[in-house]
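task queued by scheduler; priority normal; single chain, no ligands, no partner chains; default sampling; output format set to structure tokens
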Amino acid sequence: MIPVIMAGGTGSRLWPLSRMLYPKQFMALEGEESLLQNTLKRLHGMNCSPAIVISNEEHRFIVAEQLRLIGEKAGPLILEPVGRSTAPAAALAAIEALSQEEDPVLLIMAADHVIKDVPAFQKTVVEALKIAEMDKLVTFGIVPTEAETGYGYIRAKGLTSTLNSADEPAYPVDEFVEKPDLETARLYLDSGDYFWNSGMFMFKARRYLEELEIHSPEILRACRAAMKHTSKDLEFYRVDRAQFEDCPSDSIDYAVMEKTRDAYVVPLNVQWNDIGSWSALWDIAEKDENNNVLKGDILLNEVRNCYINTTGKLVAAVGLEDIVVVNTPDAVLVATKDKVQNVKEIVETLKKQGRTEHYNHREVYRPWGKYDSVDTGDRYQVKRITVKPGAKLSQQMHHHRAEHWVVVSGTARIEKGDDTILLTENQSIYIPLGTTHSLENPGKIPLELIEVQSGSYLGEDDIIRFGDVYGRV
């Protein structure tokens, strides 16, 4: 069995904490480690190959760093140049898996789910493996606990008709249904014929590609062409951009599972949550005596049933009930818990207005470390830069800005034109416009410095790279 971790989502329903450049799967929203890290650790102790991780090209260094932090040896890290939903992503994984094994079974998982009962999850996967090895395409149906309107549903065909006699049976899929209204969801729950659609699957790699060729041949054709021209970059596998951009965008559900005659649903009862909204995060989190979930520096007076999360500044709340408040350095969300699904519409508005708050945080992660845009004004920008020990920024120059650097802590090795300079705490340097330069941390502790940019244009695209250890030239 080869696990396939889908880590390419943007998590827009958890804005403003989740942004396109640093979405929810890379955050520690439940526990001490990120959702991606927990997804990989969920497989520990199982008889499976290293996982294939599929992510957005812009997230590649975040994925690699998070795997390194937990000592995880993954299989190929496949980079999608553009998002094309889950059916093409699974096709890329299946093509790669068939180059490793004769006909492995793929376990398709999202990187942003919470599963609290890991032993039950592993037991169900082992049972589902028996079904997949019979050339069936398995989807995992979550045993519903309430009439939930935020999930799609799977209707099982004849719950008395099972494919195997194990404790975890498999039922033929009758139909997939979209997210229902509350009245319909109650009918689904009362009937006992429906499961929540988890978005997790298991099937043989070759079997999936056969079904894709029958029902969505354009996807298969584009993915095969994209994988034929894969280039290796460090530990990453880049698929051909032009070929993959031509691939139709579709989910595994629509492209294959709704059309095949061999779809089976295996019940999964593991305290699952896809953290698809702030109210879902409130559901699973630890609460205080007034049923509030609190993260950060918060003062309350007569507040009940609320979710409040703040980064940095104090949040004081008075007389609130059933409210979500999320404060980040550059944006604040205030919503009623029953309307948090509409956050996606705010994100779409930000995109239409050409703003950047949906795209990145004030603090931006890079393979060498991170920077925080502390202040921005007309013709100037101030950043706090952190460079990891041993890391180095690219050799570069700027056409439209000059830079002043002040070292706060650590040691900086700077190449400025033909000169190499070492700076330590409280020392500074000026980089004129048009000067080739690079910055490196040769020490064993993080390098912290303040950068003041000044010039006519301060965008991140005013970078001409001449050399880069991370392959970004």
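post-processing summary
- The radius of gyration is 24 Å.
- The chain has eleven helices and 30 strands.
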